[in-house]
Amino acid sequence: MDTDRPKDTLKGLSLTSVAIPLNLREIPRLLTNFWLWDQPDFDPGATDGPQPRLVLCFNNDDAASEEERIRSAFEATETLKRRFSTLDFIYLDLRGERDLYLRENVLPEPKGGYKAGPNNQFFELIERLKDERGAVFQMETDCVPIRSGWLAALSRRVARAEPFWVMGSPYCGEAALPLEFARHINGNAIYAVCDPQFQTFVKSIWRPGLEHFVKTEDPRVAYDIYLEWAFTIALRRHNVEQFRQFQKTYMKFVFTDYVMNISSEADANFFSKTAMPGFIDRHPNTYVLHGAIFAKAVEALRAEGGPPTPARLGVGLSPAPSELPEQPSSVDLGQCIYQPHYSAVRALQEHVDILTKALESAHHNAYVQRKTIDRLLQDMPASSDGDETAHSPNLTVEGRENSTISPKN
After folding, report:
1. Is the domain of 371 the same as that of 246?
2. From 154, 183, 280, 319, which residue has the greatest number of CB atoms within 10 Å?
3. Which parts of 19-111 fold into alpha helices (H)?
């Protein structure tokens, strides 16, 4: 027997924790989620094996004084408290520039980038959970279940999955993301934190790579879009070494329709275009939606006071829509990145409009102006002979908490 051979920690993987990254200001939303998950139609469900932990990871100990209130709310639930083995708290030590999250591009550029806070919180959470015996689902407070049994279903899916490091959703909303990160996996995903090779990848490649990228390429970049963006740049620049590096690990980043990321500002009208009963029926394998609009829907549902059911999400936010044709946010997985095509003339006009807006906007500093000009030159149609494949890049990007200027999520 080869005792020196490393154990394959990715075989027979189990879900051991659900981790919620948050800060002091998000506690009201957390407590609203506790209320929601305790409702029969949003019940997490009993897992087949050992119950996972529920881990709350705060950016710092400013929230420590609220721990008793949070525990009391959790213990006051009827069903929810029985779905998790324990409620655990992690308090990181992120302050100052290490805890920064800016939605506008102010000058001077922060040393760690505009998303230093969420980036550091993610990497330190992964590090803290390295002793887990299985996988962890990172579930931000703006993730909302749309059917009962969501925890039990996730446990089964993890157990049956092919070996993976990260399993999550691409962007499935209506915005046309920049090509550099259009296929990225959103940060609300399942991570094989128990795997030493994954931990090494995070520590030696992912985190230092992002930190270098933020300093040299774009200070707005968040951890979840970085890998796809860096991979795209490596291809563009014919960086064989970096391409080979990603090539060795890319198959361990897999898509799933368990969670669906619909988190751009362009998706703020989701409930005015989508009838929830039909949406739920069309996506029988989707259990969780990610996006600020869904968190707002839960808050409105609780305030409205009617029966809390998935079909009633969106009540109080907009007029109930009639059943509409399928929207880009509801297309088949793998085709959910909507990128319209234009004629060469239309594309040229779009490029000019983008450049003009960037130069006139008070929110775009010299750095963004230069990047916009670079993009204009790179994406300019080669001819105007009616080529219908020319496309117009859309610089509106999705962002945590509906930021429109942050390449995030």
Report:
1. no
2. 154
3. 27-37, 67-75
Q: What is the pLDDT of residues 9-58, one digit of tens each?
A: 788 899 999 999 999 999 999 999 999 999 999 999 999 989 999 999 99
Q: What is the CATH number of the domain that holds 41?
A: 3.90.550
Neighbours of 50 (CB within 10 A): 13
CA distance 14 to 52: 9
Residue at 86 is within a domain: yes
Query: Do residues 195 and 13 make contact, with C-beta atoms less than 8 angstroms apart?
Result: no
**DSSP-derived pairing of the beta strands 15-22 and 135-138:** parallel
Q: Tell me how crowded residue 283 is: count the other CB atoms within 10 A of its CB.
A: 17
Q: Identify the three-state secondary structure at position 253.
A: strand
Residue at token pair 């879009």: 225
Q: What are 324-380's pLDDT values in tens digits?
A: 434 333 333 333 333 333 234 344 555 555 555 555 544 444 555 556 555 555 555
Sheet holding 15-22, edge to edge: 87-91, 53-58, 15-22, 135-138, 190-191, 166-168, 253-255
Backbone angles phi, psi at 287, to 5 degrees: -115, -25
The pLDDT value given to residue 394: 34
Distance separating alpha carbons of residues 14 and 220, to the nearest angstrom: 34
Expressed as residue numbers, the domain containing 385 is 344-391
Sequence-distant (6+) residues with CB within 8 A of 160 are none
